[in-house]
């Protein structure tokens, strides 16, 4: 009963979890702790050079929650570990997610400490799902954020996702395709992702294509023959300039058949210098319609430099460094219990303090429609003039609406990104976007802290 | 017909590929290019601070090749893109991998430029599989290498994989569990990985467990009641020292029932200082049998410092930074055509030159049994005294033997790692292990370069 898009082998969604989710759950069951719990998913600090996050991953979370189960095989495995009691295993066999989810929709921007997702469910159900939820939202938000930085740096030039071969696994490849499309990439090289998500696939030829022919020229001709409408010639296998002249020759041959060479692709060397030389060769040959695509080692920092210097590159293929978010390959996203059985809770571990209670985030705009400030509040507060960001997307274990359409998510991102001041988008050391805490939440935090300290921390330290 | 362990949704292994593998294949088909091709998978340069790689990922490659197919749904999707010809789509419908694979077995150490895998198959089959093969071997070797660094730094103390929540996706979580076990980790928190790979699962409780109870003490007691034989108490939710005193109290209560507290876990703060204080409290309380586990933000650099300073930590839980190989989240692993239809080939792109021809790697040892030097040679060479590293693991599309047993792979790693001089294992700026090229390969490279330049590069640049 695995949902078709869920990236797990064997169909056992329940088992994709940390062992401690299961051992804790057994102890909860034994203690009869079945009351409702709320967990908040949020990121404590910004990775280097980040001042915003792009929400992504919620669709997989909802698919997962809708299909959560432990198969007979899973129960047999757990029994064989010798760790679990029979009554707990029987409980697990019937477990489904029956709770509710409030979340910031995919495509929206959010900031540190703001809950991207809040889960409210019977304690065990809310606990069991932690591992998968962090794994997916952390990855997808991180990749969408990285992609947004690339799109911003490219200043309107198109970008294709070429990352699949170097992402950290197959799941990451699919998620990179989707997340980068949300943030404005135009296409992906990954055919499975294109088919699953309804995105445009992109790609033409590798060096092996060239070298499998006796000469580059023969390879170019063979490709143009197969794809007269969508030929992009890779010109750097032996020498970029000679390759460009071969491409010119083939483009002229195509013209005599009424066809047009679409582009040439640079994949190594100094892109700034080479793109100017290649552009001149193409233009001098009357091929001003042939575009230049560059790929290989590109990230937002490289894109910014090339674009600022005016390198005549029309399209970028972005791979490895974006696909692993190389300059910030992880974030400290956490999933923390904030309320149990009506009692707001928090932890006090050094540098890991959490805010108690179920929450809402209110976004305010200035008179020009630009984001002014966010306020993190309690979920039952109403802040006049603020737009509440968290929406109820699941209730009693069922989605409250149809799955989000990818194009809508992409539009939502564009809308939000346009309303974020440019100073928060700069690639290096952006300032922090102002996020405040409501008076009520501040008071609750102080109260809970005092109570928790009184019960759990002796004065004798 | 997806193999149960393959990490892909929808069962369409064929579609997990870059679009250009398919467009090139159509052009190959049109040109009647069906002769055998050999592709080499190798890494050009070391990521920062690396001087060796641990082979991992081959099992998934062989599973994938054994099950490669394009379903009716996949063909329908490809037809709908409008990119492909009917005859090519019919060809794809019947395509299977019928070639052979020679590879360095999982667990073995290898070095830059050495082919970890060589695929020989009809050109299209060998081309189509590129994306998946790079994706998996790159990821798994990278994670196994990162884990080997952690194991080396821990100097015999146990390490558990706690990375699942922060790996880049679900596939990476499973592969991290397996790769880190190959390199000597003792267990994983990921229950699905433990069940798929037959590894020990590990884990006990999160902060949410503590905070869902009215007090830490009650939480500790509830856990000990459920798991008297395997209780590890997380002591930092509110204050590590107070938490330790609560753990002592529960340990004493357990003793009166004839039970023993297994360990306490530190998850924040200064591990060096806290572990000494906690050790003293435990020892002064007659609890010298209670172990100390530390987790949170650890990587090989932190482990080395803690171990060198003698922090009394018995076990480490290693997560995020190892699970994404944070200091080196990608490598430039490439899959290059080296021979087609009996003709050795190479590319000359700047910084991306490849060595032509199918290859073998010979490893020589010194009189003490330690690795002395590797020689990359042609596959038909025989270097007396050298151990050939690449073994034939698939022939005519069938595995030549049963799947590798994980324990055997783990043993193979230990054997190889013990034979690598310590100077190559240091965490910062290790020297390069000596890798040479045989005379025959050197001559072939010079010949092919000259021929390729003559055909493809004009003098007029």
Descriptive overview:
Two copies of one chain form a homodimer. Chain A has 461 residues and is an alpha/beta fold. Chain A folds into two domains: 9-143 and 336-456, nicotinate phosphoribosyltransferase (Alpha-Beta Barrel); 146-323, TIM Barrel, CATH 3.20.20. Chain A has 16 helices and 19 strands. Chain A has helices at 19-30, 58-67, 72-81, 86-93, 123-128, 130-154, 170-182, 191-197, 207-211, 216-226, 240-256, 271-284, 300-308, 320-323, 406-418, 439-456, and strands at residues 36-43, 53-54, 100-103, 109-110, 117-122, 158-161, 187-188, 232-234, 263-266, 291-295, 315-318, 333-340, 343-344, 359-365, 371-378, 387-388, 391-395, 398-399, 435-437. Chain A has a seven-stranded antiparallel β-sheet with strand order 13-12-1-5-3-17-18. In chain A, strands 7-6-11-10-9-8 form a six-stranded parallel β-sheet. The radius of gyration of chain A is 26 Å and the shape is elongated. The termini of chain A are far apart. Mean pLDDT of chain A is 94; it is low at 1-5. Chains A and B meet through helix 1, helix 3, helix 6, helix 7 and helix 8 of A and helix 1, helix 3, helix 6, helix 7 and helix 8 of B.
């Amino acid at each position: 009963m695995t949902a078709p898009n869920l990236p797990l082998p064997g169909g056992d969604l329940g088992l994709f979890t940390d062992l401690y989710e299961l051992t804790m759950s057994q102890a909860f069951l034994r203690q009869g702790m079945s009351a409702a719990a709320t967990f908040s998913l949020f990121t404590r600090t910004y990775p280097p050079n980040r001042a915003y996050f792009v929400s992504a991953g919620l669709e997989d979370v909802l698919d997962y929650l809708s299909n959560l189960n432990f198969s007979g095989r899973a129960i047999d495995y757990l029994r064989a570990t010798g760790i679990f009691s029979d009554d707990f295993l029987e409980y697990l066999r019937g477990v489904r997610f029956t709770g509710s989810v409030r979340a910031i929709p995919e495509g929206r921007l959010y900031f540190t400490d703001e809950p991207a997702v809040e889960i409210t469910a019977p304690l065990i159900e809310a606990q069991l799902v932690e591992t998968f939820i962090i794994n997916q939202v952390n990855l997808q938000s991180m990749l969408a954020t990285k992609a947004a930085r690339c799109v911003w740096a490219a200043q309107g030039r198109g970008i294709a996702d070429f990352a699949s071969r170097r992402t950290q696994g197959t799941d990451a490849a699919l998620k990179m395709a989707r997340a980068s499309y949300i943030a404005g990439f135009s296409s992906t090289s990954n055919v499975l992702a294109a088919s699953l998500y309804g995105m445009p696939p992109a790609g033409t030829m590798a060096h092996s294509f060239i070298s499998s022919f006796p000469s580059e020229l023969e390879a170019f001709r063979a490709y143009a023959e197969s794809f007269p409408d969508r030929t992009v010639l890779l010109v750097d296998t032996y020498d970029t300039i000679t390759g460009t002249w071969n491409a010119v020759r083939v483009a002229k041959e195509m013209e005599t058949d009424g066809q047009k060479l679409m582009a040439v692709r640079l994949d190594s060397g100094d892109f700034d210098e080479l793109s100017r030389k290649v552009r001149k060769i193409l233009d001098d040959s009357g091929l001003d319609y042939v575009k230049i695509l560059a790929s290989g080692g590109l990230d937002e920092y490289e894109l910014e430099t090339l674009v600022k210097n005016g390198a005549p590159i029309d399209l970028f293929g972005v791979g490895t460094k974006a696909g692993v978010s190389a300059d910030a390959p992880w974030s400290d996203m956490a999933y923390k219990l904030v309320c149990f059985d009506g009692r707001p809770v928090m932890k006090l571990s050094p540098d890991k303090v959490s805010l108690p209670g179920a929450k809402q985030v209110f976004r305010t705009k200035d008179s020009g429609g630009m984001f002014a400030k966010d306020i993190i509040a309690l979920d039952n507060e109403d802040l006049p003039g603020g737009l509440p960001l968290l929406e109820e997307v699941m209730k009693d274990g069922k989605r409250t609406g149809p799955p989000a359409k990818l194009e809508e998510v992409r539009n939502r991102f564009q809308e939000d990104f346009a309303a974020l001041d440019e100073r928060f988008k700069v690639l290096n050391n952006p300032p922090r976007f102002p996020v405040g805490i409501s008076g009520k939440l501040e008071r609750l935090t102080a109260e809970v802290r005092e109570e928790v300290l009184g019960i759990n921390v002796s004065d004798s330290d």
